[in-house]
Known about the structure:
This protein is of the alpha+beta class. The chain has one domain (14-198): Beta-lactamase. It is built from five helices and five strands, in the order H-H-H-E-E-H-H-E-E-E. It has helices at 14-18, 75-89, 93-102, 155-166, 173-179, and strands at residues 126-128, 134-136, 182-187, 190-193, 196-198. The strands form two sheets. Strands 3-4-5 form a three-stranded antiparallel β-sheet, with no helix packed on it. The protein has a two-stranded antiparallel ribbon with strand order 1-2. A hairpin with a 2-residue loop joins strand 3 and strand 4. The longest helix is centred in the middle third of the chain and has 15 residues, at 75-89. The radius of gyration is 18 Å and the shape is globular. It starts with 13 loop residues before the first helix and ends with a strand.
Amino acid sequence: xxxxxxxxxxxxxxxxxxxxxxxxxxxxxxxxxxxxxxxxxxxxxxxxxxxxxxxxxxxxxxxxxxxxxxxxxxxxxxxxxxxxxxxxxxxxxxxxxxxxxxxxxxxxxxxxxxxxxxxxxxxxxxxxxxxxxxxxxxxxxxxxxxxxxxxxxxxxxxxxxxxxxxxxxxxxxxxxxxxxxxxxxxxxxxxxxxxxxxx
Length: 199
């Protein structure tokens, strides 16, 4: 990549990033913080609108483990994967997903929408306060989602996504098998692959 990560191990691979075994620091380290809102003290969430905006949260941090040594869910790894896609395609990650995944799956109501420019009929999230009352999450998440999450999707369009994936509209059969293969044993009967957790 053409971005400098001065303390990251040069042996980190895409496989490490996809399986959460890269050893890089996670910008949301649950061993240090338990409230996602703590992230936005130094970098306000309304400044997070593209993948490069996440970099100040982890770019100059030290490695946590050696690549391949430990499974640890890692949001920063997904940001790096998105940046790799951007560099390889010369497209913003959100534009790439909208063109090659959402449009290819006929998902017209889904997308990477900015919280201050939501389309009509878009649902927003809520967080329960300690006293049992509720508030919106608009000040708790990035202004625009990235490669680590934050896309808006409807339930019927999730069905379209899985149909497109399993019917060969998005990936070849070989790549589909790669996506759905178990990779890392996390616990006794839980494995992690390129597409998530499997039992």
